[in-house]
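Bug #77: duplicate submission created two jobs. Keeping one. Sequence:
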Amino acid sequence: MVVMIKIKTPDLTFIDSMKSHVDALSAGAKQAIKPDRMTIQYPRERRDLPDNFRGFILFDIDKCISCFRCTFVCPANAIQMKSQKNGRYYPCIDYAKCIFCHFCVDSCPEGALKQSKIHDVAFKDMDEMFIPTEELVEPPEIYREDQYVVKYELGEDLILNKRKEVDNLVVEVEPPFRVPMISTCLRPERCIACTICAMTCPVDAIAADVVDGERILKMNSETCTGCGLCVSQCPTKILGLIKKAIVTPDT
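Kept job's structure:
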C-alpha cells in the first residue's frame, strides 16, 4: 500500500519572507558585478578545450605514405582509402560511423592525421558526413559568432576567475615516439613468390628478382617504413614486423 503525504508550504513570517527576498536580490547583484558561474553564453562565448581534445580530424597529404594503417586500426570502419589522380591512396572519413577514438591519429607513423578542437560541424544529411580527402586537408568552414574563448581559473581566494583569450582550433602536436619497425620474412622456405607484398608496398621497399630461374623477393630495410601493409596482405602469413636496429656513431 502506498501512502501519499501532502507536504504543506512552510508558514513564514513577514520578516522571514522579506529576508528571503533580500538574500535572493543580493545574490543576483553579486553575480551581476562579479560572476562566478561555470556556464558560458554559447555561441558568443566558447569554452576553452584542452590540446588533446578529440575533435575533427585534419589530414596532411604531403606526409601520407599510403600505408593503410589508419584503416586497419579504426574500430568503427569509418576510414576508407580512395585512389587519387597521382595513383596514391589517401583516407576518407565517414563521420556517420566515426566514434572519435583517434586511434588513426595515434597510429599514423608520419603524423599525416592530426587532431583539432573543432567539434561543432553541422551536416544537412548523412551523405555530407562522408568527408573526402580534399576536404580533410583544410579545416571545415564554420559560422562562428564568438571572437574568443572563455577559460575559468581557480584563484588563490578560491573564486573562479573568468579569462578571455583567442582560440586556436588547430593544435600542432608532434606524433608520439615509436620504436622503428621494419618488415621481414620469418619463414622464407614457405614463400610462394606471389609478389603481393611487393605490389602493396607503398614505398617500393620490396623488389622481385630472378636468380637461377627462381623468383626471389628482396627487402630494403632502409626504405621500409614499418607500416605493416605487406604483413597483412601476405597469403601465407610468413611476414612480420621486427624492431629496426638504430645505428649511432658510437656503435
